[in-house]
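Re-running the complex after MR caught last week's input typo. The corrected sequence lines follow. Everything else is unchanged.
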Amino acid sequence: MEIRTTYFGKFEKNGKIISGIWCGTRPEDATITEERNILFPEEGKKLKHKETEILFDTVWLRDGM
Amino acid sequence: MTIASEIQRIKNNIASAYSACQEKGAELPANQNSANLSLTISNITSGEVGETSRYGLNFDNLWGTVDANGNLQFPPSGDLVANGIVRVDDYILANMFGGNAYAVTKKRGIKSIEFPDLTHVGNAAMYQFCTYTTDLESVSFPELVNVGQCAMYYAFRRNTALRTASFPKLKILSGMYNSLTSVFYDCPNLEYVNLDSLEQMTKQALSYAFCSCYKLKTLSFPSLNKNSFGNYTDQFNNMLQSVTGCTVHFPIRIKKIIENWSDVVAGFGGYDTIILFDLCAATVNFTSNSNNYSLYVDKDFIEDSSVLLPAEDIEYLAHDTNANKVLVQTLTNLVENETKNEFIDFNQNSRKVKITTNHGANVYFDILGVSINAIEESNGNFAINYIGNNIDISYFIDGGDNYTDATGTISVQNNDVSQNITLSSATISNFSRPNLSANGTMGGNSFAVSCDSSVSGYSAYYAVNGSTNYIWMVNNTNNICKYTFYNPLPLKVSQIVNYYTSTTYSAANFIIEGSNDNQNWTEIGTYTVTKTLTQTIPVNSTRYYKYHRITYKNSTIRLQDLNITATQKG
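Corrected-run output:
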């Protein structure tokens, strides 16, 4: 398992302000508006909830969880 | 029968035989007699295309050639051109070249595949169609519009030389699910994919579609729109698994729809995926003769004066609080990749929109989803000065603690408009939640509850039946569930307490909304609360609503009791 950070933000290109999402690497030339920590399973596997046994591809780690 | 007629009959047969040889691509001798006929036939070689090879391949391409020692060689690679095929129905071409192949990757004698006339591929019609090859370089479906359920599931799996895949008119991924799932799974040299016309996608339509396509660095979906996804959010599940550094371009008009999907936030399963909402967009530069105004597009507050917007007609709202003016206009003629300058002119003639009420404390107008506080110009007269498009405006009158609230709609046309609203006396009392023995009727004469998801036998009312022996249980894969409660007298909720069976089956994040018609919802707030068995959400609503909806951000909930602290007005 590993935790990767997804960054929400915007940047300017040719006079246009473009919204984007950067998954894993923080962009250098963008204004970041939000960061989320995402838990990934090992490749080819899924995350399994211990109690309910529901499978997830990824889980967003948030306060209180 | 005479000797002459017999001779003529034999001559005719010989001529027919030479004609048949010619059709097979044979080179005819100068003297087309019976003596040369056998040699002519023997000189017909396999691999000569002629008119009888309908689709561009011959048996040598598929089977291979034989060398001088009788050893079977790998086939020469030809071009498959499936002329004249307009429609392929269910299963017909499944497993045609390679199939599952048990992971044996080799030359299959096909260098390129084109279906120049194909418009429709039926359910599973091209499942594992051409797989595990080392010689296929390109696939092209220039007229293809619709593919059905599992139609191209693993269709081109593990083609190690494949570089381009073109579906320029493919518009609809139909059927129930998996139309293009894993279509180019493990094609490590795939670089170019054209899906420019893709508009409709059903469940998991592109899941794993480009898994392990290590050279794929860009994808674009310029034709996707607000109606592209139906009720599903998993169309792109693991679409880029094991792919590093791919940039995916979407139209800006779908940003609000997909930006919080778990697959999008996770980069479609890839590494360092970049997702940009930069297609089908125009830049709009806003200026105004007001120095103090707020700008909204599609309910979103716009901070920047220069903004990227969908290249289509779109309404915006500008609010000058000092001048008590609200302007609604339509941006037109927005052209993709071009810039438009829009001047917000608050000096235009305005129409007064007025609510006269006997006891209102505050009046709010809802215009394009934006709440505007009307100014009390004189005792009981609340107004805004409106500029722009004719429009229906919703209003809410807060009667305070002593009078009822009021809601309604006022139609703004070309002239000033006003409505008189008489509020009735009301009393405020503490709400005491009844215990239910059934969900009840929403909008009826008594307290009622409902939910969007529950395990059979664990209905919504079990959380409000006064007994902790029964629970409302949810077990889904949606990541959220919603619980609604209704009271005929509107409630102003200050606090909600959740009583869970276990913190495992609880939530930490909530959205609470209010409504007076169970259709139009206003967000009261979003809340993050530590998971505990007895969990208090400090709602602190400032308005009375008949309906309240709680969104629990979790897939599994076991709620013993829902306690509501509120006052009611009636």
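None of the earlier attempt is carried over here. The radius of gyration of chain A is 15 Å. The longest strand of chain A covers residues 2-13.
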